[in-house]
Design goal:
There is one protein chain. The longest helix is centred in the first third of the chain and has 22 residues, at 54-75. This protein has helices at 2-11, 20-31, 38-45, 54-75, 77-91, 98-102, 111-125, 129-134, 140-156, 164-176, 181-193, 198-214. By secondary structure, the chain is mainly alpha-helical. It is globular and about 50 Å long. The termini are far apart.
């Protein structure tokens, strides 16, 4: 898999963080049904080709944990549990598990988390949010509450580990790999609204597709930046 990791690294533009390549790779592998491959990803990312200090290694472990904490909201628990178990086997030589490594705390549902979730949703969706919610009909109140309070409020809008931009990259990968055209477009547009240029977004798309195609996915019909260029 080393060739895959090298290709993704080369595809990710400097606009995104130096950790973006493994965040994209991890989330794409999970979404494409290859969660067990997070083990070789961790081995490569912490191996001799990418020498890390102990602090950097811990940071990588914590960031992967946050990718998984956010991933379950978009792809489901079974994939995340499988990925977590695969990671645990290779991490145990370094830590007593990722939760111990990060001093991770269970999130609490409060009015503040709902407000945080609403704010991040508005940063991504802007004036498009209300029409999207209204299109859901009688399900709108439930979906709005779950998204603002839990999906975004507790998880996606928590930027204490992954930044706002890193979280958005993860979301794009997780959604794009499901072949969902409209939601993919919303989140590609969100990357542009968070400051990514068109070339940056195209490069992120390419990095995601490199991993997805490696897993056997046909990406030809997936949504791209061209679908939302005039909507930013």
């Amino acid at each position: 898999m080393d060739e895959l990791f090298v290709a993704v690294k080369a595809a990710v533009p400097p606009f995104f963080s130096s950790e973006a390549w493994y965040l994209i790779t991890a989330s794409t592998l999970v979404a494409c049904g290859k969660p067990e491959e997070l083990a070789p990803l961790y081995i490569y990312a912490t191996g001799p080709t990418s020498p890390l200090t102990e602090g950097e290694k811990k940071n990588l472990s914590v960031k992967l944990q946050d990718v998984l904490a956010k991933s379950w909201t978009l792809v489901g628990i079974p994939l995340v549990v499988t990925a977590s178990a695969a990671l645990a086997k290779v991490e145990k030589k370094d830590y007593e598990g990722t939760i111990a490594a990060s001093n991770w705390k269970l999130p609490e549902l409060t009015p503040e988390t709902t407000a945080r979730g609403t704010a991040f949703m508005k940063a991504i969706y802007r004036d498009n949010l209300e029409p999207i919610l209204e299109s859901l009909g009688t399900n709108s109140p439930l979906v709005e509450h779950v998204n603002k309070a839990i999906v975004y409020g507790l998880f996606l809008a928590d930027h204490s580990i992954l930044t706002e931009l890193e979280t958005s990259l993860v979301c794009v990968a997780l959604i794009m790999c499901q072949g969902l055209r409209a939601p993919t477009g919303w989140h590609l547009r969100g990357l542009r609204r968070l400051g990514a240029s068109e070339d940056d977004v195209r490069a992120a798309e390419r990095a995601i597709k490199i991993v997805a195609e490696w897993t056997g996915k046909d990406t030809e019909e997936w949504a791209t930046l061209e679908d939302i260029r005039d909507q930013v």
